[in-house]
Amino acid sequence: MVSAMKTVEFHFDFGSPNAYLAHLVIPKVERRTGSTFRYVPVLLGGVFKATGNRSPVETMAGIRNKPEYVQLETDRFIRRHGITSYQRNPFFPVNTLMAMRGAVAAEQLDCFASYIDAVFRYMWSEPRKMDDPNVYRQALLEAGLDANRIMELTQTPEVKQTLLQTTEQSVARGNFGSPTFFIGDEMWFGKDSLRDVEEALSQ
Fold first, then answer.
1. pLDDT by residue (tens digit) across 111-158?
2. pTM
3. What is the DSSP letter of 5?
4. What is the DSSP string of 127-192?
5. Which domain range does residue 72 map to?
6. β-bridge mates for residue 10, sequence order
7. Which of 142, 146, 154 is nearest to 111 (CA)?
């Protein structure tokens, strides 16, 4: 059994490209450290509303040089980790409420890992408009998932309440965006903080 200090909570929303990039790197960190990352779905829109935060697209609008630097930082991360499967989603921003509720549903149906891989892929590797119910259903079907059952569960009070509570609890612990990592009560934010998370795991 992996000890509590070797378990990392990964609080994520599919709408974050940085969460996807972190998702691609996490397996390597797990292998190097013997750790386990536990994926925790949170609704980024809810996090932003609760904290007064806004998306980088909004906060960087009209700022000279910053968007170019952020892209440079992303390019460096991609090169450092040998990532070849990332593309900007032409439909961005995508409303992720349905997809995040679907993550809660997939956890109940014991297909969580497959669901996470599929939705991240169709958001940031083979981009689709994943807030269109028909597109979303087709993507899940192509991934071999029970699309109808997942979509049915996304409309249940239990799934809706679970996502709401998980999001609220994440904010209460300090979260203000995605990706966010916790080891116990200690928090790190952003894909680049994975280096620090790995260092903490190795201590």
1. 999 999 999 999 999 999 999 999 999 999 999 999 999 999 999 999
2. 0.93
3. G
4. ---TTSHHHHHHHHHHTT--HHHHHHHTTSHHHHHHHHHHHHHHHHTT--SSSEEEETTEEEESGG
5. 4-202
6. 39, 181
7. 146
